[in-house]
From TrEMBL:
It holds the Pfam family DUF1003. Keywords: Membrane, Transmembrane, Transmembrane helix. It comes from the Bacteria. InterPro entries: DUF1003. This is Putative membrane protein.
Length: 236
């Protein structure tokens, strides 16, 4: 198997991983020259080494744009480096499955308390309460008009229902923040992947142009040899 020596690590790599330095994008080469100023356009490096500097380029770009990298930006860079899907990386961030029994109960109570079913059932309960005390017990029942006991029950229910609903709303806010984080990470990764794709396309175009120039040079040399042969035959 044919190999070549990388100008960065001075290690041997398969010839299939060879990347000529002259085909590398200038922004990436500037990073390489900072650490290896001795490298010139006639040398070559490996694909894996080029990917490392692409990763550094993305990291420097993020630092330049947003300042110090947060945990989210670092996670995005890791997913790009490890070629993972962003949703698998953010699965560990979900908090929806980590609720306690009390929190899940609060969500159910808030869901029921904010439904038409609760309003209808509670309205029926109040009407039955009033009818029993006014009609059947002739306003001499356990809670005669103006229904002081009923008012006390309603006040206690409202006092308990309010914090339960707030607990559920806090949980919903946590879910919304989590979704916003995931959306931000997906959008950021898409932007960085597009930048890498542009860099790879530029590299591919430059590589193809170089190959076309080599083919043209070979064709010119072949034409010159043919012309020499024709001239030699004419002289004889």
């Amino acid at each position: 198997m044919k190999t070549f020596v990388s100008a960065i690590s001075l290690k041997e790599y398969p010839i299939s991983e060879q990347i000529p330095v002259k085909t590398i994008r200038k922004s990436i080469m500037d990073l390489i020259h900072k650490e290896h100023p001795e490298i010139n356009s006639k040398k070559s490096i490996s694909v894996s080494e080029l990917n490392l500097y692409r990763q550094k380029y993305l990291s420097d770009y993020l630092i330049h744009e947003v300042g110090e990298l947060t945990t989210l930006e670092e996670d995005v860079l890791k997913t790009i480096e490890q070629e993972k899907i962003i949703t698998t990386q953010t699965e560990g961030l979900n908090v929806a499955t980590d609720y306690s029994y009390g929190q899940r109960l609060a969500d159910k109570v808030a869901s029921f308390g904010g439904s038409w079913r609760f309003i209808i059932l509670f309205g029926i309960f109040i009407i039955i309460w009033m009818v029993i005390n006014i009609v059947f017990l002739l306003d001499k029942g356990f809670d005669p008009y103006p229904f002081i006991l009923l008012n006390l029950i309603l006040s206690c229910l409202a006092a308990l229902q309010a914090p339960v609903i707030m607990m559920s709303q806090n949980r919903q806010e946590e879910k919304d923040r989590e979704r916003a984080k995931q959306d931000y990470m997906v959008n950021l990764k898409a932007e960085l992947e597009i930048r890498v794709l542009h860099e790879k396309l530029d590299h591919l175009i430059m590589h193809q142009q170089q190959e076309l120039l080599n083919i043209q040079q070979i064709q010119v040399e072949m034409m010159e040899d043919i012309m020499k042969q024709i001239k030699g035959q004419q002289k004889t």
